[in-house]
Fold:
Amino acid sequence: MRQFFALLILPFIFSGNAAIAAPCCAGASTLPSLITGDEAQNFSAAFSYGTVVGDAFGALDGRLPELRDDHSNHEVRESLTLNYATLMTDRFQVGASVPVVGNQITAGSRSDSKILLGDVSFTVGYEALPEWEYSVWKPRIFTFFQGVLPTGKSVQVSESPLGTDVAGLGQWQTNVGAAAIKRWSVWDAALVVKLGRLYSQTFESSLNGVARVGGSWGWSASLGGGYSFGDFFRAGASLEPQYQSPQEVSTSVTTSMTSQKLVWNTNLTATALIGSDSSLVLGYSDQTLFGPAINTTLARTFSLSFQQRFER
Amino acid sequence: MKKIGFSFGGLSVAGYGLLMALANTACGMSPLLHHADSVDGVIPTQSGSANDSVGERTSACEWSFPTVGLCAHHVWMKEPDRENEGSFRLVFFKPDQPTIAVEPSSVSNTASVFVKLWMPEMGHGSQKVVTIPAKDAQGANLPGEYDATEVYFVMGGTWEIHIQLKDASGNVLDSAKINYTAK
Structure:
């Protein structure tokens, strides 16, 4: 049982880091730093490398998503995310996630790269429905509250013409959600839903002047499953739509409503236990396979995550 | 393969060569994406369309400033693309005399002309546009004409080109906008 959950929870950790949002787009991941296994604490470090391969335009634009054919333009996103979670009681837990984001953008003769702190988040989780004894149908259910701090630089205060210094939304954000996990022999399934609120914020920069960005709602969900090969390997897949409602943006020049944002992440993972308390996850996330996609860049991202668990 | 300018812990150098190559494969099959250069009729193949006025100088009142009683139109000197900055000549005129350039300061308290690029659906701008009075071959100012330079759209999509007429205190006397589709 312990090995199974060690295999199963890692894709959750991975998933939150794999889909790096565009500098101008929603970036909330569905899954926060959360313990869903039997350990007392866990720590993970996840590195991801993603390339923007296309653009999806706003709802009013009328154009279908486009592939970036021009190979003189490159937009690379890397991230290193450190996650930590610990049980406070048998069922309560707290966690935190600290991402460091690297952007490298080349547009013809222009090129720039920067590494910055992203949006730091913290999580309070509660195991609402434990699995004290096996049930054919009853899943384990975790509920969580997530707060996201505006530590990442927003596009509204970007000083870089190419936007390489954008590392987050730069707005306070709170999310509530639940994760349901179930396994049947070597098969498993997981459903995670999250509802979030992005709070209004006023920004000031030399490039954009003063801009007030209004609040908005968002949601994301992840439905996935996996198959375990013995006690040490697991392959999994999940589909993860993310939505953000329009925001009012006011500057000295204009007041406008942004388009809604929608992107679908397709996540594939391969997990291996490399000891009794450690695991590696190799993952691939693709935002070009399912749609519709609205008002976002579209990326393909590879990720490698290491997790260390500390038993009770 | 493109060289990566930075890495985390050496991973992008030692272990990520293959991953980088795969992630960079923009020609991978996708049911969602269309090629920007496709001619299937779905994706507009004309880039850089600002209303109907791109290219030849016209007398169309692209930007209307009713408070100061002026219009403006523009002529691209160099149209921007995803790689390069562009620039355009901005010409102010009275609606009933479209062929005669009029300096905004001669009919109002305008002290400066300000150009801003704005992407409404994304809710952000682009790099700062430098706007200076246009000059003739001898270096003399051309009244009523301004050159907007360093025009660069950070991403493709529908943008707005805003023009504001400001007084000496920075107050906006009048403003107008047009739409522009950046490829």
